Amino acid sequence: MIKSVKIMKSTLLYVLKLLWNSSKLSFCGLFFANIFAGILLSAEMIFWKNIINAVQAAFETGSLKIALYWLVAYMFLEIFRNVMEEMCQYYKIVLSSSTNKYITKLILEKTKNISMEKYDNADIHNKLKKANEESTGRSMNLLYSTGLFIKGLSVAVSTAFILVNFNVSIMIICLVINIPILFIGMKIASRQYEIYNKRFENIRFMDYTKTLLTKHENIKEVKVYGVTEYFMSFLDTSYKTYIDEDKAIRKRFSVQKIGASFVESIIIYMMKAFICMIVIINKMTIGDLTLYIGAIDNFRNAVSNILYVITSIFEDGLYVNNFFELINMQTEDTDKSTVKFNSCFQTIRFENVWFHYPNSEGFILENLNIEIERGKTYAIVGLNGSGKTTILKLILRLYVPQKGNIYIDDHNINDIEINDYYKYVAAVFQDFIKYPLTIKHNIGLGNISNLENETDILQAAKKSGILPYIKTLPDGLDTKLQKEWTGSTEMSLGQWQKLAISRAFFKDAPIMILDEPTASLDPMAEREISGNIKALMKDKTCLLIAHRFSTVRLADKIYVLKLGTIVESGTHNELVNIQGEYFKLFHIQAEGYLET
Ligand SMILES: Nc1ncnc2c1ncn2[C@@H]1O[C@H](COP(=O)(O)OP(=O)(O)OP(=O)(O)O)[C@@H](O)[C@H]1O
Predict the structure, then answer these.
(1) Interface predicted TM-score of the whole assembly (ipTM), two decimals
(2) What is the 181 CA–ligand 1 centroid distance (Å)?
(3) pTM metric for this prediction
């Protein structure tokens, strides 16, 4: 219990700070509007008592003047309270949007510093999804609950004064009878949170399958293989298990809650009967009776609201903690390197590099020695899974080798300021991003500082060979892509790949990393790019992975990778002459073309 209170306290403080930072004005507005609304509610009760008493007095005096004064005052009070309630709603909505914006920014800022290694782990994906899903809603719940708490507290305190004036023990009883319900509520919340965590990854998987089955680019395969039924039966089974589990838990807690509420109602009605008795014995007014009975109801409601709010705060706190866990997560991978990248570097060297993926056993790269000279083009060839892309990931310092070192001139790559290094690198990955944006911005994102420079964008499009196609489109560079979005068109995979290549050209970086950049291109386009590769890569250091030897042969040096080790290196002619591994692969491909 003490631990729970401590967690609640620290979470609430975190949330209040978060909300305060999201929008100070809305936070204050909501806070004060809630307090006023609460106080006005209690004031209305006192005014109402005076109206009743004034009406009763009018039986004797024959004048309703005082009652009318009170009625007018009551009317203004109610109008003022409605204004306050409306202000609560207004500030709540503004604060909700501001919090959403602030939280999104915090999460995205955090994701920038999460390493590839962490992204290889399901845990970070669970954390991100929990933070994304729960943070805004739960923070707003917490805010709403805090608002209710403040309002409940102001109603409770003001009605408590009225009750204490009548009989202090009634006030204490009203307070105490709610405690069992509080405990049951907290138990339910803890149990639900336990279940939420237990189910989370499977629920994430269920959500993922739903997206998978409805994603535009997947529809073809989903239809042809008819996989919807398969996933539907998996979803059915999961939902059924969860519904049964929820029913059982709910039943147990509902019985406990009904029992506690039953006892509470009996006590409350006994107290009301007691008040009636006292009013009769002491010959008090009907206004007094209404005031005290109303005070019991309002006090009881306020206390049960407060306790309900405490349970909600406890529950939301548990969930929102996932967000704080993510935000406070140690990102030891945050770059602490201070050496600036030398754009006039001469070599990049792998010295006895051994690497295996974190959480995987068995080295993917073994004792690798590679030298990349400035201004030259290098190709890496090898069978699927031999480790080619892994080499590129190490050059990009997305991972760090377990043994050996990678140097850029005399500096270990780990000492180089990573974001400075990335300014000088452009890359086309196998699984490049297809942005749901215009063609212009799909290319322009290669160099955000130059995003609107259409002349350079068209130049980059020309180099990749996509320009003639762009010219056929009515909206040209402004054509929106990805059919899932209104007013968009779709492109072929090869055209998308050309866009990804244009993006890399647009960056115009001295280091080019190309992982199968021509895999989806037609022979004409491939020949055009491959044929021009020397010209396109002029003055650039280029590292290229390709399975097509027509592209590979143009490299200044080719490394042949087999089971994580470099087994041959040299120019195309040199490697063909030694008739080794490269020669074998080259001939298998050439035979395929020449067979007929
Ligand atoms: N993130 C990862 N975690 C664990 N293992 C991985 C990861 N990425 C790749 N691997 C494994 O590392 C090995 C090398 O993969 P890599 O992508 O470097 O091969 P490749 O030579 O580029 O293959 P391909 O020609 O098919 O693109 C493979 O066996 C693969 O299963």
Answers:
(1) 0.97
(2) 55
(3) 0.78
